[in-house]
Amino acid sequence: MTEHTAAVRGPLMIDIAGTALSAQEARWLADERVGGLILFSRNFVNAAQVTELVQAIRAASADPLLIAVDHEGGRVQRFREGFSRVPPMRELGAYYDREPEAALQLALDTGSLIAAELAAVGIDFSFTPVVDIDTGQSGVIGDRAFHHDPARVSVLADALMHGLHAAGMPAVAKHFPGHGFVAADSHLELPVDDRSLEDIRAQDLLPFRRLAEAGVEGVMPAHVLYPQVAPEPAGFSRFWIQDILRGELAYDGAVFSDDLSMAGALSAGTPLQRASAAMQAGCDMLLVCNDPQAVGEVLDGLEVKPDAARERRLSRLRRRDNTDTCLCRAQAIAAADGLFTVLA
Length: 344
Fold this sequence. Notes:
By secondary structure, this protein is α/β, with parallel strands linked by helices. It has 12 helices and 10 strands. Strand 8, helix 8 and strand 9 form a beta-alpha-beta unit. Helix 5 (150-166) packs parallel to helix 7 (205-214) and helix 9 (271-281) packs across helix 10 (292-301). The radius of gyration is 19 Å and the shape is globular. The model has no long low-confidence stretch (mean pLDDT 92).
């Protein structure tokens, strides 16, 4: 995908409470340290309403904002009314076991469909694909994962990413280095994965390596602790982000923290301490969601220095619009009704 020249300067991504901006939220968006906003189901009524909301969000900031959503399919699809019901990725994995070539094409078409429908309402990107391994141990991942075989996760996620790209939308792979081997839900507690680095390399890192080589624009670390490897959860770990992701995997895209208000992040201290620790570890954009008080605390104290490399990496997450994107959008939406009948 072509890089965008408009710089995304702010490293903070926040959320809003409802279906329209409040005065306080508009003031937060005007802060130059805020570079993005993530939408949730509570912000969505229908396509017309969310399009108007996106326009209001962009108008609130003098700098270009990234607007994102979790729109993976299955149970993690925030926009539903008027949008195609995308199946959970496990269904694409099961289809791959039966018809591998057809499944890869369907994964590509799925990416194009997700991107086309989100682009139509002004969204820059979805936090997708999930490239965790489906071990059967993680309920919070579960059918969000493509497969239990890392090689099959790799090729399906790569196809979905290329489908996103075909419709002008970047991709964000999650949850690095892998959330599939722990039972605990990092929304509720800090999961602990006692495997060795060698075991993680042999399984979980394979899809991340494939997508890094293919040019994925974003990666999101997990709020998971791997005590045999590093003393901090991955999203706060320079070892995981700098040595493994950027060094060993040669990844040069943006790194997004997972939501710093999740229980799995609380061991890093106050909201401001969490944000600072994630930034120092190497995160380019910090998500602070579902906790307005935490947003205020972070903005009261977060110091941000200009960083041309961070701005360049984040600017690649801006959706690209051109003639090809419009054509792909029209084709994807026209095919939406029959796209997933093969999985029924």
